[in-house]
Amino acid sequence: MFKKLAKIALVIICFATLLGAFHKPMLKQVYKLEYKETIDKYADNYKIDRELVYALIKKESKYDPLAVSKKGAMGLMQIMPDTGKYISGLLGEKNFKINDLYDAEKNINYGTYYLAKLSKDFNGDVEAILAAYNGGEGNVRKWMTENGNELYEDKIPFKQTRNYIKSIKRDYNIYRYLYISK
């Protein structure tokens, strides 16, 4: 019996050692840097943390440029057509077409620009930025007004938005761990 337990313990120790040595490469298979050049370009341009953009795209579309949500959000960063038109106007572009949101470069440009706008509007508060991206700017302003100009994740009335924030923050921290930490 003791020999059997010792063998099992040895297997567990070997597995744990291998897992420890290879956990980053394994995680990088799930947390990829797709569209890296484009994401890095716009994140740098708009001064947004690129790992936040990667995490948001992973959550929103799983890197599918043709993704469409049940509510009609489109592309990599799942931008609603009205929001795309709004962003297009803010960027001084003319002739916005809804199908532009399927273009990876344009979608990343618009989405990253919008994150930068939200960052400015909400003083860099990541939770407020993500809540606004998911639940709407107007809702976040209302929630903050109701709570002394603070956003408390547990007081957000939309469960989907609370879960969205938690999920993206988790992925954001994983991206930072994998690609920033040494």
From TrEMBL:
One of its GO terms (biological process) is peptidoglycan metabolic process. Belongs to the transglycosylase Slt family. Gene3D superfamilies: 1.10.530.10. PANTHER family: MEMBRANE-BOUND LYTIC MUREIN TRANSGLYCOSYLASE C (PTHR37423:SF2), SOLUBLE LYTIC MUREIN TRANSGLYCOSYLASE-RELATED (PTHR37423). Residues 38-151 form the Transglycosylase SLT domain. Signal peptide: none annotated. One of its GO terms (cellular component) is membrane. Coiled coil: none annotated. It holds the Pfam family SLT. This is Lytic transglycosylase catalytic. One of its GO terms (molecular function) is peptidoglycan lytic transglycosylase activity. The lineage of its organism: Bacteria, Bacillati, Bacillota, Clostridia, Eubacteriales. It comes from the Bacteria.
